[in-house]
Amino acid sequence: MGYNATVVVLVDQLDRIEKTPDFGKQLADAIRAKLNDPSERHISAPYVAGQTQVIETHHADHMMVVAVGGNTGQILGWGGGYRSDPDEMIKWLNADRLRRKREAKNQPEPREARP
Which residue, of 43, 53, 74, 114, is most buried by count of CB atoms within 10 Å of its CB? Predict the structure, then answer.
């Protein structure tokens, strides 16, 4: 399998999207930028292409749980394999969030925060 991208399209801007001759190139460039920057791949800082936002990219074998609203999206976490049912996705999402909290606790304090 390949990769997937989560993209938020601002529906009230469809007329503007329609009139943008290079919209497809802008969107492809934004997806490539998100995909090619490993530090940003699963971070909710969107790459903007016209009236869209590329929220995240991930390998197609996996499910990413993303919440969408307020003209943007936020990555909630990993939802297991692509064949996961909704209950399994919630289980994997909770496990992923707990793992990230544990990892954050084990990170050393930033230098500027140290006395």
Answer: 53
